Amino acid sequence: MLVLLLATFLFYPDAAALYRYDFITLCAVAIQAAMLAMKLEIWEEVQVILVFHVVGTVMELFKTQVGSWVYPEPPLLRIMDVPLFTGFMYGCFGSYIARVWRIFDFRFTRFPPLWAQLILAMAVYVNFFTHHYVVDIRYGLFAVAALLYGPCLIHFRTDQTHRSMPLLLGLILVALFIWLAENIATFARAWTYPGQEAGWEMVSLSKFGSWFLLMIISFVLVGTVNRRRQTSPATAETASPGPQRRV
After folding, report:
1. Sorted alphabetically, which InterPro entries does this protein's record hold (predicted)?
2. Residues near 180 by Cβ (< 8 Å), separated by ≥ 6?
């Protein structure tokens, strides 16, 4: 999707009969269909993608109405002021988390109770709307996220052996890469923030915190669907067939 946004910004003809945003939407549909046809995604993962697609689109409808960002080009395929390709961008987050969870065989130690994560995710989502009218509680949400995920280790298998890292660090790193991707997307004028109308500038670091909170929603959605059995590193390696090698 990121390559598509940048390539159409650089090379899509201004005189084309199909608006650029609509072309991106049709390409996004084709990408999703191809992922399923080639079995790169499974139907359980598509459930997560669809939910996150809807969650993201609803937030987009609200945020564009309050002026948080705008889409500077005209589409036909849209809901109000929101082009339909935006839902697929949110779906990318859900797709990424769902696929790496399966491909890298995620296991966890001290995994937080799912009910607590669901409460946090709902509070995060509500705050994205309410902070425009009442106090912004994002710093409290950061603190709760640190308490919940700080003790947790994630174990992932890239070859034959599970390796470990703090889950909180993993979520922060993913949010950082999304923030960097957002800078590329706004450079490609997929959307613009206030202050970027006259020319592109780096996205505020405050958006990095927003992406971290949004990643929590995606992670909890995937965790709810998967309901994976959490294991210790020793159990994870024992459960993994094939020879082990020392690293």
Report:
1. DUF817
2. none
